[in-house]
Amino acid sequence: MNTANSQPVTIICNDKQTINANVFAPAGPIKSAVMIAPATGIKQQFYRNFASYLQAQGYGVITYDNRGIGASLNGNIKKNKATLQCWGEQDMPAVLEHLQATFSNTRYHLVGHSAGGQLIGLMHNAEQLSSMFNFACSSGKLTNMPLAYQFKAHFFMNFFIPASNLLFGHAKSQWVGMGQPLPKGVAKQWRAWCNGQGYVKTAFGKTVFQHQYNDLTLPSFWLNAADDDIANDINVADMISVFPKLPAQTLNVQPKEYGLKEIGHMKFFSKRSEILWPIALEWLDKHSN
Predict the structure, then answer these.
(1) Less crowded by CB within 10 Å, the N or C end of the chain?
(2) Does residue 43 form part of some domain?
């Protein structure tokens, strides 16, 4: 994906695994630098228009594919050992380090989409971020979703994922419109965390023994859409509760107020939703001075 306004890079994580990323450098002076952390199973190309928008506003930006996803899938997905946890513990810290090396002596921000915001507390270097802007980031707790949507969510998480992992050695999420195929460990952990309360909190003391959730104090903004059945207000609040010291500003937006038919869980980053992007830009500008 080498075009005029981005440069593909390969990042080596602490555990020697490699992930593919793209760096967007502004033409003029840099305001600060942003890492766009993707939702579960979503390729970095999905965020390209938004990254270009921030780039044009003077931000250095990096997008990336988590290990086992898109260009960061090396070899047979059945043999891939990726988990949600290693995305937070290995991939995200390495991306931030690359961002810092590329754009030095500035401030750094996380723009998290769903899992991209949820996993920040697993980053050993999370305190080096100046702010976090999240969209559709919540605990994803199944029983907090609207009843009409719960059936679909339970089917996907509690039937489709286990059956697909058993039959194919990975989750064929693309069959049900849920992004890219997922490595078995990612899908298994996703299912477990969405069936609990506080998402990753369900793994504290089980697989997660060191984390930053209790200590993070960076300013954060949590944007969700009124037509998002997953990241509804209850689940957003549930996720925020996992960060006891985190200053959190929330905003729920109605699609019709912005002339949009839908926003849901995904479409903030769509070019059609560009009218919403100044919300993120205003936040980043505020915390880049």
Answers:
(1) C
(2) yes
